[in-house]
Design a protein that fits this description.
Elements: E1 2-10, E2 26-30, H1 32-38, H2 44-53, E3 58-68, H3 76-91, E4 99-103, H4 116-128, E5 134-138, H5 146-150, E6 154-157, H6 166-183
Parallel strand pairs: 1-3, 1-4, 4-5, 5-6
Antiparallel strand pairs: 2-3
Helix pairs in contact: 1-2, 2-6, 3-4
């Protein structure tokens, strides 16, 4: 059985919102609470659970998940408290792991750190080393940075707007992880920046401009 650590830290901020986000804005679950909350739900981790339970060779380890409400910029001290709790939860199992799945968003920001997800991945990579594969799931509105790509092995993201495929994105991250662990696949990811500014109606999957392409 391969041991896969399941954790997360996600929030979408708006820098135009004057109300700073604090630690208490997050719903935090630990250990088996994560499984109990997400089992059967259309959520990133719910999809990951479904994919894992359809496999017979994965032993999941649920550690720490912080889900924040949409708000203003995250207070940096609150971010450090959350991220350190996440890191501590990874350290407890670092020597037992065959892989890691992280449920992220891609649109966090603090007063001092413009790339919190990149920071999280970089620090976790320091904890577990280069050999342990890490896959992540992201929101469609997430910003994929060079630091994020450098410190993970695979990315799965939402593909619909309005978002209805949370579980599919979580499943996708686990499927990538399984290919790496069991089939020795070595994914290559590239980031392409497109100079586009689009309005909400153009993004609707079923009838928007991009949905019709």
């Amino acid at each position: 059985m391969k041991k896969i650590l399941i954790a997360g830290c996600s929030q979408e901020i708006s820098s135009f919102n004057p109300i700073k986000c604090e630690y208490d804005f997050f719903d935090i679950t630990r250990g088996n609470e994560i499984y109990e909350f997400h089992k059967g739900k259309n959520s990133y981790i719910g999809g990951a659970i479904n994919e894992i339970e359809n496999s017979n060779n994965i032993d999941p380890i649920y550690t720490f998940n912080a889900e924040g409400y949409a708000s203003g910029v995250l207070n940096h001290s609150s971010f450090l408290k959350i991220s350190n709790e996440l890191f501590d939860s990874v350290k407890r199992f670092a020597n037992q792991l065959d892989g890691i799945y992280l449920s992220l968003h891609g649109a966090m920001s603090t007063q001092e750190e413009l790339d919190p997800e990149g920071y999280i991945l970089c620090e976790i990579r320091k904890i577990v080393g280069e050999e342990i594969p890490i896959t992540i799931s992201l929101d469609l509105h997430g910003i994929l940075t060079k630091k994020m790509l450098k410190n993970c092995n695979g990315v799965s993201s939402l593909l619909t707007y309005p978002h209805v495929d949370f579980a599919e994105a979580g499943k996708g991250a686990i499927k990538i992880l399984k290919k790496i662990i069991f089939d020795s696949v070595k994914p290559v990811a590239a980031r392409i920046r497109i100079p586009a500014l689009v309005r909400g109606k153009e993004l609707i999957t079923e009838n928007g401009l991009f949905g019709n392409q």
